[in-house]
Amino acid sequence: MPLLEIFRQTLAALWDSKLRSFLTMFGILWGITSVILLVGLGIGFGIDQHQRLKSIGTDIAICFGGKSAMPSGGYASGRDIHLTLGDAIAIQQLAPLVKTVSPELRRTVSEVSPFNAASRAVRGVWPQYQNFRSLKVEQGRLMTDEDEATAARVVLLGYDSNRQLFPGKTAIGQPLMIEGYPYTVIGVMGKKQQNGSYGSGPDNSQLFVPFSSMERDFPPSFGTADKLLGTVSDTRGTVNNIVVMPVSPEKHVAALRQVRQVLADRHHFDPQDLDALWVWDTLEGAQFTDNIFRAMTIFFAAVALLTLLLGGIGVMNIMLVAVTERTREIGVRKALGATARDIRRQFLAESAIITLVSGASGLVCGVGICLLLKLIPLPDVMPHPVISPIAIIASLITLGLITVSAGTYPALRAANMTPIECLRTD
């Protein structure tokens, strides 16, 4: 029988049971759409979280002083470890695998602008801090080495800080009183998508000033016990933490080992004492997050492919029902000279048309939804799905397997029937 005639008869048979055919095809369509959409969302979540982590820094480590848990070099355990400006300078000089470093001072003080007042956290940092912490200005400029060297009273505003202190006004060049000291606004940061931070909150709510200016205007105070014990080794005071960036991700672990050794030598604790120096490793956190969302994407893909396989079972079911309903037709056609091959090709063609048409529709629908969602603003917690070529290829391979498996058994069953057996059926 010519292929054109087989195709015509197949469309006529599907049209005779159009509701059943549509529902079966919808199962395949939804399965393909689910694979593309769920995998796309999984990848989108991973990319979104990676970008949010990048706003903190993907290859940096934040070092905090702790309390020694073991004796070392004649010094008892249980000592508080206070990090200082001298520690940051020592790391810069003695740890060659550290690319950049910055001490950090954090204080919550009062701010008064010509338009409003606030009480927000201020961070005193070195200029290089702005690069590895991904501080980007929307207006104005960043702090420079000259600002640090001259202890200039200049300030960089976070997105939310600017909205509160200068609501609807131009902030660049405006005066800002910080705890009574006159500072000048030199830059306003763009809004950062950030779902994690340390210390005094996300960068959007902060103000950033040169470290030297903050150390002069808002110096850290020493406790009496620290003075008596001599645990404070730098007369310019302690810092809240020190941020370091290794020369490369590959040397990240070795760089942190050097940092720990430098600080252990300066503060007389064992380098293996993890309690003496607490380190927040953002690279390790980024890898952990990537693993979580990779597993989530695989789970989404497995669920979607299972949905697609269930659609394939529906195709096989409708083909078996079709064989049963058309038994007499098969017998008549065989009595009139149709071969087993003709019957087999007829039912294979029907299953192929159902799966291929519904599969192509699902592919268009899935890709279309992903493209449409990119044009729609979504909430911050909802990322835009990403069209994954791997998901599309996996869907097409699964669709091909469904086409062969769902049609072969019903087609063979129909082809193996004898005319007498078929005509006896009521």
Mean pLDDT: 81
Report the uncertain regions.
Answer: 222-235
Q: Could you say how many structural domains there are in total?
A: 2
Number of helices: 14
Find the structural class using helix and strand composition: alpha+beta
Strand segment tally = 10
Form type = elongated
Biggest sheet: strands side by side, in what order?
2-3-8-5-7-6
- Beta-strand portion reads 15-25%
What is the radius of gyration? 34 Å
SSE succession: HHEHEEHEHEHEEEHHEHEHHHHH
* Largest sheet data: 6 strands, mixed, barrel
- Measured as a percent range, the helix fraction is 40-55%
Quaternary arrangement of the chains shown? single chain
Cα distance spanning the termini: 27 Å
Characterise this structure.
- The chain has a six-stranded mixed beta barrel with strand order 2-3-8-5-7-6, surrounded by four helices.
- 38% of the residues are buried.
- It contains 14 helices and ten strands.
- By secondary structure, it is an alpha+beta fold.
- The radius of gyration is 34 Å and the shape is elongated.
- It is 53% helix and 15% strand.
- It has two domains: 3-53 and 288-424, no CATH class; 67-275, no CATH class.
- The chain starts with a helix and ends with a helix.
- It has helices spanning 3-16, 18-54, 85-94, 129-132, 145-149, 159-165, 211-217, 224-229, 252-267, 282-325, 327-335, 340-374, 389-415, 419-424, and strands at residues 61-65, 98-112, 117-125, 137-140, 154-157, 175-178, 181-189, 207-210, 241-246, 277-281.
